[in-house]
Design goal:
It comes from Sulfurisphaera javensis. Keywords: Ligase. GO terms for molecular function: ligase activity. This is Biotin/lipoate A/B protein ligase family protein. Helix content is 37%, strand content 26%. It has nine helices and eleven strands. The chain has a single domain, classed as BirA Bifunctional Protein, domain 2 (2-Layer Sandwich). The chain is globular, with a radius of gyration of 17 Å. Helix 1 crosses helix 8 and helix 4 crosses helix 7. The longest helix has 17 residues. With 240 residues, it is α/β, with parallel strands linked by helices.
Length: 240
C-alpha cells in the first residue's frame, strides 16, 4: 500500500484530493493508499448530510476566522487545528464500511499504544481513550472502493470547538462538543509534537498494511485541481 506524507493545505484542496483518490481507486487507476496530512489554516469540516444552521456556530467561526468546508463523507462536524491535529485518509478496496472502520481503528489503537495509552473502538466511527474521543472517522463508498478519513488529535486547542453547535437533544444527552473529546497532550500531561504523533501514526498503519513510500500521480494532481471549485462553492458548502 502506498504511503504519502504531506504538510498542511487548504480544505478545498484536501477534500478534492480525497474525492479524487476514491474515484481513481474505484477505476483501478491508483493503488490503495494511506495519506497523512493536515488542514491549513485551522478549518471546520461538516459532514455531507448536516445542516449548517444546526451544527455551526457561524458567529464564533467568523470571530476565529476559520474557513468552513463541507465533506463528501458523512459524519459529524470536526474542528481541525492546524497546529494540533494530523488528518489521515485511507483508500482501499471493499464495500463494507463498518469492516473498514474496524480495520483502520486497529492501526489507530496501535499508534496510541506507542504513548502508553489504551484506545478502544467505539462504534460507529470513533476511537476513544478513557471514555473520550481522540479519533473520529468518516467514509464514503464508490463501487468496490472505500475512503475513510479522520482525525488524530495530539494537541488540538479544544477552545476552538466552540465553533461547533450541537443540537439541544444531543447536547443534553452527551454534553458540549469539547467535553466529549480529548488529545494526546491532555492525556499525557505534556505537549506532544507533530513529529511524535506522525511517527506513531506511521507505525500504527504499518502494523496493519504493508506500506511503501510513494507520491501523488499527475492524474491525481490534475483531477483534484479541477475539483477544488466544488469545495469553495457556497452552493455546496450551504447545501443544507
Amino acid at each position: 500500500m502506498r504511503l504519502i506524507v504531506e504538510e498542511g493545505n487548504s480544505g478545498d484542496r484536501q477534500m478534492a484530493l480525497d474525492e479524487t483518490m476514491l474515484i481513481l481507486l474505484s477505476k483501478d487507476l491508483i493503488p490503495e493508499t494511506v495519506r497523512l496530512w493536515n488542514f491549513k489554516p485551522t478549518t471546520l469540516s461538516l459532514g455531507r448530510f448536516l445542516a449548517v444552521k444546526d451544527w455551526v456556530n457561524e458567529e464564533v467561526l467568523s470571530q476565529y476566522g476559520f474557513p468552513l468546508v463541507r465533506r463528501f463523507t458523512g459524519g459529524g462536524p470536526a474542528l481541525h487545528d492546524e497546529n494540533g491535529e494530523i488528518t489521515w485518509s485511507v483508500v482501499l478496496k471493499g464495500n463494507d464500511m463498518m469492516k473498514a472502520y474496524q480495520l483502520i481503528s486497529k492501526a489507530l489503537i496501535h499508534a496510541l499504544s506507542k504513548f502508553g495509552l489504551k484506545g478502544e473502538f467505539s462504534p460507529i466511527n470513533d476511537v476513544i481513550v478513557e471514555g473520550k474521543k481522540i479519533v473520529g472517522m468518516a467514509g464514503a463508498i464508490k463501487r468496490n472502493s472505500i475512503l475513510v478519513h479522520g482525525t488524530f488529535m495530539y494537541d488540538t486547542n479544544l477552545e476552538y470547538m466552540k465553533v461547533i453547535k450541537s443540537p439541544k437533544v444531543k447536547e443534553v444527552e452527551r454534553g458540549e462538543a469539547k467535553a466529549r473529546v480529548t488529545t494526546l497532550s491532555i492525556l499525557l500531561g505534556y505537549k506532544v509534537s507533530r513529529k511524535e504523533a506522525l511517527n506513531a501514526l506511521i507505525e500504527g498503519f504499518e502494523s496493519i498494511f504493508n506500506l511503501e513510500d510513494g507520491e501523488l500521480t499527475d492524474l491525481e494532481k490534475d483531477i483534484s485541481e479541477s475539483l477544488r471549485f466544488k469545495y469553495t462553492n457556497p452552493q455546496w458548502t450551504y447545501l443544507r
